[in-house]
Amino acid sequence: MRYSYNKDKSKVVFAGREDLNASFKDLSAVCDSIRYRNAAEAMEILEAIKSGSRPVLYLRHNKHMGSRHELGGRKGRFPKKCAGMIKNILTTAMANATAKGKDPESMVISHASANKTQIISRSPSKGILYHSGGYGYASLRRSDLELAKVEIGLSEVDQIELGPEKIRLIKANNERYLKKKASGKKQSPQRKPHKEVPKQESKKVEDKPKPQEKPVQAEKQPEKSLPKPEEKSNNLPMVESQAANTASQNSNPGKKSPDEAKKDDKNDGE
């Protein structure tokens, strides 16, 4: 297999595969996510993409693609099929490095690319094409099969033939990963994979909060009844009125009482 690496190939351990039945656009996006990273870290990234817990950033070929909050609002996707293919190729590259007496976990991916290889033209069968009559273009007139290839190269950090900025970036990424590995911290996934939750047959009754007990109030003591004032006898006003009548009669002896006047009027009428 001819590799497109244009530097000294003796310092790089290669692995590749041709005629893959996959989109070269998705393959190239996955290669961008693992390029210039430690081989062991790249394996973890590919495993996370394959499980659906980490999206892949698409810098190109992202028309009408949704944005992902894990990527800070940038466009991305989960190419699980392509991640599995590249993982197998990376495993082969690490095995080749072990066969050459090198430590693959300390090596860095210095080369990762994906390209289109060939296009196989296909058309529907004769019966489908002629029986449909081409009415409304219901049947597919042409369906091409596009194949792709992937190349991965591993090299040691001190033997990378790149610019100073790329080498500085590669060393920083490698040191960060080795420190994290030494401390024993695992990389937390950015997105949890979807799990089907079984339906519960019976819903548990939630414990209702108990009503708060009202504070006990002290019993009210009956108020002391005040003594009622003594009622005056009703005979006093009558006595006073009789005394007043007698006093008036004594003071005016010539005047007759009203009762006597009534009797005199009756006698006169008779």
From TrEMBL:
Region of interest: Disordered: 179-270
Alphabetical list of InterPro entries matching this protein: Ribosomal_uL22 (IPR001063), Ribosomal_uL22_euk/arc (IPR005721), Ribosomal_uL22_sf (IPR036394)
GO molecular function per UniProt: rRNA binding; structural constituent of ribosome
UniProt keyword list: Ribonucleoprotein, Ribosomal protein, RNA-binding, rRNA-binding
Record bears the keyword Lipoprotein: no
Gene Ontology biological process: cytoplasmic translation
Chain intervals with Polar residues compositional bias: 242-254
Pfam families referenced in this protein's UniProt entry, alphabetically: Ribosomal_L22
Compositionally skewed regions (Basic residues) per UniProt: 179-194
Residue ranges, compositional bias (Basic and acidic residues): 195-233, 256-270
A GO CC term attached to the entry: cytosolic large ribosomal subunit
Function: This protein binds specifically to 23S rRNA. It makes multiple contacts with different domains of the 23S rRNA in the assembled 50S subunit and ribosome.
Record-stated family: Belongs to the universal ribosomal protein uL22 family.
PANTHER family: 60S RIBOSOMAL PROTEIN L17
Subunit structure: Part of the 50S ribosomal subunit.
UniProt-recorded name of the protein: 50S ribosomal protein L22
Species assigned in the record: Candidatus Micrarchaeum acidiphilum ARMAN-2
